[in-house]
Sequence to fold (316 residues):
Amino acid sequence: MSEVLYDIGISAVEYTLGSDTVFIDELDQQGLLESPRKTLQDFGFVCARLSRETPHALAFAAARKLLETNQVDPLSVDAIFYAGATCAGHAITTSDPMSSFNYPVAWLQYELGLTRAVAFGLSQVGCLGMVSSVALASDFLRANDRFTRALCVTADVLPAGSKREMIYNVISDGACAAVVEKDSKCNRILAYRQITKGYYWDSITQKNQIVAAYFPTARHIILDTLISARIDPSELAWVIPHNVSLRSWEILLKLVGIGPEKLFAENIARIAHVIAADNCINLKDAAEAGKLLSGDKLLLFTFGFGANWACMVLQH
Fold:
């Protein structure tokens, strides 16, 4: 019996960001940065978006916007994958210890009316949360003939007063939702790779070692993913990045032989690093800016503490 092949892709994306725009100068004045503000400005950052709401509220807002804007019938969703990089995003807690089991993925399933959808929570992959959810959703759909559509949601909000810099990167609060489905008319998934190096599990004490390992491992996984997709770097139309410093992207692009003009970098200054949401936010914004053409090959790369590297190739 031959395997049924599906063109599975990301058919729609919506997002919501923290409501407060706080510029680098103000973050510096509030003591929320580790590095000199001039260094972070030179690295491409202008401001951060801070939320007064919980990650669950942002997740709900992004997912509801996705369903309404794209006229997605909640009963057509077969699965929901919820990801968050921080522990606070994985339980809606009260003073009762039992509230640790109040999972936001179940809350979203109920509040959004996704009564046919099975629910999964993804954690402990840091900033890989969204792309890993998309990859898992793709595998889930491919393995189940009777399922056609999944919803992927990620949300993270740092506690009030938290430092807004992590290893030369400015962090914003936000949430993103994406529909992954069979026979998608755009953003078909051509290849996905993920590398985990558990040696770097302690992100605080291993900070310098993580920086040292970042570029060689990133180069390896990007080139390996392109080989898997049978694509030469020159065939890529765009790199859809995570919003870490522009300087780090300039270095990485040289290492993999991709021109800097192919990097969609506008959101690094505009919204900073929205943890796991960056790639899909940038995918949506690049498309809405008219930069993506049908058939374009796109490279999505991200890194997450833990330590994990991931790369995905799409055909728009």
